[in-house]
Amino acid sequence: MIPYLNYPKWLTITAALSLSILTGAHADSVSTVPLQNPHFSDVSGDGKPDSWDSYPGGDGIAVAEGGGVWIEDSSSSKGLGIAQWVPATEGTRYTVTADVAGEGGLFVYMNFLEKKPAQAKKIESMTLKQKRHWMSGGGAETRAHSFSEIAPAGTKLMRVWIYSPSSGTTNVRITGISISAESLGAPKAPIVVSPGSPIPEDCLIENPRFTDLGVDHAPKHWEQYPAANGSGTKLEMTESGMRLTDTDKKNGVGLSQWIPVEVGQRYTVSAEVEGDKGLFLYAIYTSEKPTQMSRYSKVELTQKRDWAKAGKVAQVSSIAPQGAKWMRVWLYSASSGECDVIVKQIVATKKNASSDAAAVAAGLLNWMDFETGDLTQASSKEGGDREIVKKGEGPVREGEYAYRVLLKKGKERSELAGPRSPAYGEARYGWSIYIPEDFDAEITPYSIVTQWHDWGTGKEYIEDGGAPTHLYITKNSWQFKLRYQGENNHVDSTLFKLGSIEADRGQWTDWVLEVDWQAPGKGGWMKLYKNDELVIDYKGPTWYEGKDRGPYFKFGIYRGWGGWKGTEAHSKLVFDAFRMAVGKDSTYEKVAPSTYAERPE
Length: 601
Fold this sequence. Notes:
Elements (H helix, E strand, L loop, with lengths): L10 E3 L4 E5 L7 E5 L18 E2 L6 E3 L5 E3 L8 E8 L4 E12 L1 E9 L9 H4 L2 E8 L2 E12 L6 E8 L6 E13 L39 E2 L8 E6 L2 E6 L6 E8 L5 E21 L9 H4 E10 L4 E6 L6 E8 L5 E13 L2 H8 L4 E3 L11 E4 L1 E6 L10 E6 L6 E8 L4 E10 L12 E7 L16 E5 L2 E9 L5 E10 L7 E10 L7 E6 L2 E7 L12 E7 L13 E11 L5 H4 L1 H4 L5
Parallel strand pairs: 1-13, 2-13
Antiparallel strand pairs: 1-6, 2-3, 4-7, 5-6, 7-12, 8-11, 8-13, 9-10, 9-12, 14-17, 15-16, 16-22, 17-21, 18-19, 18-20, 18-21, 18-22, 23-37, 24-27, 25-26, 26-37, 27-36, 28-33, 28-37, 29-30, 29-36, 30-31, 31-32, 33-34, 34-35
């Protein structure tokens, strides 16, 4: 029992909930429009607060003596909440403020709509914009929460929803909650911006220089995600461009726009920025345009990103995979980052490349053969130095180019990342590694050379202290570690020893991994081939329960926490011929390097 709550496992809302409209800049222009039943009284006598919809309903919702409502949420499989509709106006900034005590927390949502749907299940599809905020209790003390959102064009209603989700329980008390609204006035005329590079005639981005502002005073066709909070994160249009400021270590800020795409076409997105530090530019392909960000992970197919900073044009070039209908262009300063930049422009173009389209049609999800002569095929770059190797100037597995890792002293990693697989199901990966004769494989404790990383995949498990599923070199031998869900939410693993690397020095070694990513009891399996010979044939768990994304592939060198202290001259590896396919229709031949070229002697 929590002593400062009257009842354990009950949520108490005791505040008056009101809506204030700011119609001008002065205090005397404020008028209060009260919500119906702001104190959650029960005149009807049914035990529920009058004029509030129970959604989702349940026996845990009950009016408290003296005012307020209790929501008993002790189940991790059912949610509970209450909601009310209020009038809202486009171009108005609404702010929710609340003081919360207790343990755990719950969400408060603002959903903006043009009209009220006939059925609650239609709310998500009809929402113009949604903002939610997690309000955690402050224990014996109250904790203040505040968040804002600007109603988009077409808004006539706002749904205020207090919700304890189905994924957890809560024991918190909201001691005060209010909603205020500030009219921002008429939108400004388009701003003349000092230009960056010429905008291509075939640019797919609307309002690429952010000069045309909407009723919410944000650039038209662009969504703020995460939205600026006006204090630690800010978005402001200036004569030089869109100024994006992030001094908040807990909250991020970004701008995004959706573009319809065609499967097999190559799309190139670029961003020009000036200022201090930087942020990420993403191109993310999805099977549909989600109406709510909560569905985002369910529809995402692949993504690529580049770092945008002053003096460098960030560029992401990628091919729309099978099933793609939309690409989300997203400029994002993460919650852990800081920056103060002027975004001059973001542009996107499409190119019809028959070879790319043919590869997608053949069933490939992604590939890195480096035949572009650069590293643009990678989804992202992690860690230290790397370079392109040209045929005749260094080892190349196929075609004209490969990529070489150059791990510097004091650094721990240099890797290129590829795409994620779906959360569950079959996936196939092919790639090739060249080990130089003088590569340090004995003095250094280990070199992880390929990983299937589980960061950002959903439910987390208690770690075993090691890296996710990976192929590595240690004490002059190949080893493979498969990680998966163990007992009591711990990570478990199986280690496979694959023999000495000595015979593989000075030549290319081809690898193919076939796997069915599955949690325990779901029939998982894995097969690993070295130079087209089966070296691992495993049946059992390969993944985890509760994941909404699969692992992402990356290859390079990772040598552990704290920085590697070895000799740089003996820390080079070369990689080539990566291909990936997913689904039951994918085959070994689609990804195997030997399908495309014989191994060089």
